[in-house]
Amino acid sequence: MGVPGANLRIDGQRLWDSLMEMALIGPGVAGGCNRQTLTDADNEGRHRFKAWCEAAGLTMGVDRMGNMFARREGAEPGLDPVYIGSHLDTQPTGGKFDGVLGVLGGLEVIRTLNDMNIRTRRPIVLVNWTNEEGARFAPAMLASGVFAGLHSIDYAYGRKDSEGKSFGDELRRIGWVGEEEVGKRPIHAMFELHIEQGPILEAEGRDIGVVTHGQGLWWLEITLTGKDAHTGSTPMHMRVNAGLGAARITERVHQIAMAHQPAAVGAVGQLFHFPNSRNVIPGKTVFTVDIRSPDQAKLDTMRAEVERAAHAVARELGLGCSIEAVGHFDPVTFHPDLVRRVRGAAERLGYSHMDIVSGAGHDACWINRVAPTVMVMCPCVDGLSHNEAEDITLEWAKAGADVLFHAVLETAEVVA
């Protein structure tokens, strides 16, 4: 078929109402959401999503990682489906839109197809990926990673949260262990709608980000060991201060990222002092360095430089130092044909747009290893995300879902 007509649009108010209703499940303390994966709130959100899917005439499948797949049949059921999806889980202090927009925007695509009695040649599958955030069970994008073959299911089931509870036990507890083997579903293409989680689109006054690439990432967990000692009675020259080592390495991470500009970022985002007492010099620190770049060579160079700097600081201060890579993915290039469809949809619909690189990791980055994928982004206020103050407008949500609708429809092919 040709491209869909520009008169075809989703119902922005209905999408917004769904977003606000989902936000009531697992509310945060400051207006956002705390719907961490495999919690009771996640379970409630899953059931609400399932009910909405069934009301839209979709059939639900669930795999052994708890990934939810809601299928709208195509005129030719044997063809590989077009997938739309993201995640419903949030950070402990998460917003209403991160991930959720991609799932409920996909649901709005289905509802609009139903309203207009549009049949597609290919089936369309709406997916909620489990544990994208990695806030409770590291690493992030865990279930899509199992689907794409990066992790084994035994590895995933064995991941533990801060209370020692395992992913597998919690998945069973809330009742979302499906019968499907993970990764066996064929995918013709996958689309993921998401808020930008950065300030570029808003600053440039653009409605749509056409995501061409995704940054690669290394998470390096560094453990420094020194000696616990009294802060008041230990002479400065006799201290073996793991906290001081962490501070110096934090500064070096910043310097390394700045030295590799443009298209490179780095920070220490998580740090634990032990014993974490006011009047005890830290004898141990454990912290995570997050470095990212869309350039593979630059990413690998930054990792090597961070590791050299960490060991050098440790030697200088007499600290023990161990480094473990606890998260990684290579830079991603999204499928050029799908990128062109997203860009073409934005142009047909009259939305301002620009090409953009995703600064964050997303499920589409893993699925890109096994099927063609692309992402559509809309702005978020002040670029703020992973924060309860995260915000977007109804108009931004509608624009993103409109572009998603057109790109998906072109790919799934309308039946005359």
Plain-language structure description:
By secondary structure, the chain is α/β, with parallel strands linked by helices. 35% of the residues lie in helices and 22% in strands. It is built from 12 helices and 15 strands. Strands 1, 2, 3, 4, 5, 6, 13, 14 and 15 form a 9-stranded mixed β-sheet that branches. Strand 1 and strand 2 (68-72) form a beta hairpin.
Explain briefly what this protein structure is.
It contains 12 helices and 15 strands. It is an alpha/beta fold. The mean pLDDT is 97.
Keywords:
416 residues; nine-stranded mixed β-sheet; four-stranded antiparallel β-sheet; 22% strand
Overall spatial form? globular
Order of helices and strands: HHEEEHEHHHEHEEEHEEEHEEHEHEH
Low-confidence stretches: none
Structural class designation? alpha/beta
Topology of helices and strands:
Elements lengths: L11 H12 L16 H16 L3 E4 L5 E5 L9 E5 L13 H16 L8 E5 L13 H6 L5 H5 L9 H7 L15 E7 L4 H5 L3 E7 L1 E10 L3 E2 L11 H18 L5 E10 L5 E2 L2 E10 L2 H22 L2 E10 L2 E2 L2 H14 L3 E6 L4 H5 L5 E6 L15 H19 L4
Parallel strand pairs: 3-4, 3-5, 5-15, 6-14
Antiparallel strand pairs: 1-2, 2-4, 6-13, 6-15, 7-11, 7-12, 8-10, 9-11
Helix pairs in contact: 1-3, 1-12, 3-12, 8-9, 10-12
